[in-house]
Amino acid sequence: MDPRVQQFMATIKAKNPGENEFHQAVQEVAESLIPFIEENPKYKHAKILERIAEPERTIIFRVPWLDDKGEVQINRGFRIEMNSAIGPYKGGLRLHPTVNLGILKFLAFEQVFKNSLTTLPMGGGKGGSDFDPKGKSDNEVMRFCQSFMSELFRHIGADTDVPAGDIGVGGREIGFLFGQYKRLKNEFTGVLTGKGIEWGGSLIRPEATGYGATYFAQEMLSTRGDKLKGKVVCISGSGNVAQYATEKVIELGGKVVTSSDSNGFIYDPKGIDAEKLNFIMELKNVRRGRIKEYAEKYGVEYLEGERPWIIKCDIAMPCATQNEINEEEAKLLVKNGCICVSEGSNMPSTIEAVGVFLNAQILYGPGKAANAGGVATSGLEMTQNSMRLPWSREEVDEKLHTIMKNIHKTCVKYGTKDSGFINYVDGANIGGFVKVANAMIAQGVV
Ligand code: NDP
Ligand code: 2IT
C-alpha cells in the first residue's frame, strides 16, 4: 500500500474503531484520490479528504414498537448526514439485522461520490435500522415504520434530507414512512423518493437501479466494440435491483442464468425468461418466499449456501449486498472468461477482488458509477415533485439512459491510463470528488 494511504487510513481506523466496511470504502477512495490530491494541492491545503470522511451529522435513536402479540420490541435507528456541499442529503434507508453504524457510514460515504456523478444537485446520506422485516406481518412493518419516522421526521425535509429505499425498503415501507411524515408535519412534500405513482412517485424509479447498471455494462462493452446481445450473465440477489437488471438484460438479448437470495442460488442454463422473471417478482415482492422455490417449479439446480460466481459467464452483475465477491471468486470469474463486472449492489467486491479485476484489465464498473441510476431517478422524482408535473415512462427512461452515458464518460475522462486501459475505480472516485471538493472549498471551512 502507498505509505500516504497507509498513514491516512491509520487515522481513519483510530477515529472510527471497528467500522470495517467504512474503512474499506474510504481506503478504496483514498487510493484513487491521494495521488490526484498531490497533483492538485488546493484540495490538500483545504483538507478536503479528511473533511469528506467525517459525517456532517450522525443521528442515532431508539425505535420501540409493538409486535402482533402486544410485546414491546426495540430497534436502533440511524441517519448519517454525510455531505451537503452540492445539495440536500440524499440516500436510501436499509432495514436488515446486520445494519450498524459502520455499514451505514460506508454507504453514506459512497453515496456522496455517486450522487455527484449523476450530475444532479444531491448531497449524500444513508440511514436505516437493525430491524429485520423477514417474517414480520404488514402491520408489524407499519408500526415499525411509524415509530422510526416519529423520530426521523424532525431531521429530514424536501430541502434538507430526502431518504429512499435500499435493502428491505421498497414501495410498502416508503408508503408507511411517507404517511407518518405527512401526518406529523401536515405537509405533502417530496420528502422521500420511491413513492407510489398515485402519490408523487416517478415512473421508472423502481426499475432504475437495475436498468442503469445494465446501461452501464452496455457502455463499458461498447469501448471494446462489444455488446450485450448473446452474452451469458450471472446476477446475484432477487430483490429490486436484481429483478430489473434481469429484465433489462433479457430485453437487450443477454441470457441471465442465475438468481439468488441469502440462502443460495438457482442455476437455469436455458436462461430466465420474462415468464420466469414474473414468477420471481411474485415470489419475492408478494409472497416474500425463498428463491429455492424457483428450482422446484422449473426443475433446475439449487445450490444451498453458494453464490453464483462459480458459474461460467461473460458478465457478472452482483445485485445483493456488500462483500459478496471475494478474491477467490473474482479469480474464478476471470478464469472462466468473465469480461465485464457491473455492480448493482454497493461495494459487492472486496478490495482483493477489485485488485483481481483491475489486474486482469477486464471491464470493471464499481457500484458508485454502475448503480447510480437509482438515485439519479430519485433526483428526477424530486424534480417532478418540485414542478408538480409528472413525466412519462419514456421521458424518464431516456433521461436515465443519458445520465448513465454521462457517468460513463466522466469515468473515461478521469480513469483512462496512458496504456488506454480505463480504470473505472479511479474514474468514478476522482470524477465524483471534483465537484464536491470544489463546492466545499467555495463554501469555506464549514
Ligand atoms: P432488496 O431488499 O430488494 O433485495 C436484496 C437482495 O439481496 C435479496 O435477494 C436478499 O436476499 C439479498 N441479500 C441481502 N442481504 C444479503 C446478504 N447479507 N447475503 C446474501 N444475500 C443478501 O434490496 P435492493 O435490491 O434494493 O438492494 C440490493 C443492493 O443494491 C444493495 O447493496 C443496495 O445497497 C444496492 N442498491 C440499491 C438501490 C435501490 O434503488 N434499491 C440503488 C443502488 C444500490 P434475502 O431476501 O435472502 O435477504
Ligand atoms: O444506494 C443507493 O443509491 C440507493 N439505495 C438509492 C438512494 C436513493 O436516494 O434513491
Task: Walk me through the structure.
By secondary structure, the chain is of the alpha/beta class. Among the domains are: 57-187, Rossmann fold, CATH 3.40.50; 208-365, NAD(P)-binding Rossmann-like Domain (Rossmann fold, 3-Layer(aba) Sandwich). It has 17 helices and 13 strands. It has a five-stranded mixed beta sheet with strand order 1-2-4-3-5, sandwiched between helices. It has a five-stranded parallel beta sheet with strand order 7-6-11-12-13, sandwiched between helices. It has a three-stranded antiparallel beta sheet with strand order 8-9-10, with helices on one face. Strand 1 and strand 2 form a beta hairpin. The protein is globular. Bound molecules: NADPH dihydro-nicotinamide-adenine-dinucleotide phosphate and (2Z)-2-iminopentanedioic acid (2IT).
